[in-house]
Write a structure and sequence with these properties.
six-stranded parallel β-sheet; Rossmann fold; 268 residues; 2 domains
Length: 268
């Protein structure tokens, strides 16, 4: 049976899987960590979930063996390598690729002048590091554990708190990056504005660093809390990727997949 490969790891991936199930469309979900498998716990009946980091060759083999007819990419906006790999393999195998990307919440497309309580948008993590070296003395990093090693210079001269997922892997990565246990917050969102404000106050944060991961990633709530307390915020822009069939609306993504799959596959 021809099917869809749903690249996931986000809350939208769970929503899309439920919609695909409701439409009677066969699919396999793919995630990279065991924790991400839990995203599909509420989907009935439970979908097949592949937990594996696929190389380009492995993905191509999977597409052929499982007769995948469409790739639906609902990975994180900053999972650039996964998306670029999927686009390349889809083109190689002559399979349509559809991208769902959550809407941006970035307040400005280019860097803006620095002022207390304002937001500065930067193009990449390296630029965010440079801002941290120049501004603030107590920095709150909410950019994910994979980025922490990039801030080693900042950790050497500033007080840095990082928020990470409450998993053994995330805690280990934070410790390996050089953060002491007392400066690691292991919490899973979503977070309310009240909690974000409380954390900024409790740790006397004077510079917040986050990524433009959209409302689902809590960016709007972080920025609202920072603005309320006049804490400057650095927002790292999303990587620039040219996506085929880009959708910012979940229903549009589903309807695009339905069109590509064809009514015969849907009911067959």
């Amino acid at each position: 049976m021809a099917m869809i490969l749903l690249l996931s790891g986000t809350s939208e991936g769970r929503t899309l899987s439920a919609r695909l199930r409701a439409e009677g469309l066969p699919f396999v979900a793919s995630v990279t960590t065991p924790e991400a498998r839990q995203l599909f716990a509420g989907v009935d009946p439970p979908p097949e979930v592949l937990v594996k980091r696929l190389s380009g060759d492995a993905m191509a083999t999977f597409l052929r063996e499982r007769r995948v007819r469409v790739i639906l990419d609902a990975t994180h906006p900053f999972a650039q390598r996964i998306s670029e790999k999927a686009i390349q393999v889809a083109a190689q195998e002559h399979i349509p690729y559809v991208r769902y990307e959550r809407p941006t919440t970035s307040p400005a497309p280019t860097p803006v002048a620095w002022e207390v309580g304002e937001v500065i948008t930067v193009p990449d993590m390296e630029t965010a590091v440079q801002v941290c070296l120049q501004r603030g003395s107590r920095v709150f990093l909410t950019t994910g554990t994979k980025t922490l090693p990039m801030f080693h210079e900042v950790m050497a001269c500033k007080w840095v708190m990082a928020r990470v997922l409450p998993t053994v892997a995330s805690l280990s990565q934070a410790l390996e990056a050089g953060l002491p246990p007392a400066q690691i917050l292991a919490l899973r969102g979503p977070f309310s504005q009240e909690l974000e404000c409380a954390l900024l106050r409790q740790y006397r944060i004077d510079l917040l660093v986050t990524k433009d991961s959209g409302a689902a990633g809590g960016v709007d709530t972080k920025l609202a809390a920072a603005a309320a307390l006049q804490v400057p915020a650095v927002v790292v822009s999303r990587p620039l990727v040219t996506y085929p069939n880009l959708c910012h609306d979940l229903e549009q993504a589903v309807q695009t997949v339905i069109t590509l799959m064809g009514e015969g596959v849907k009911h067959g």
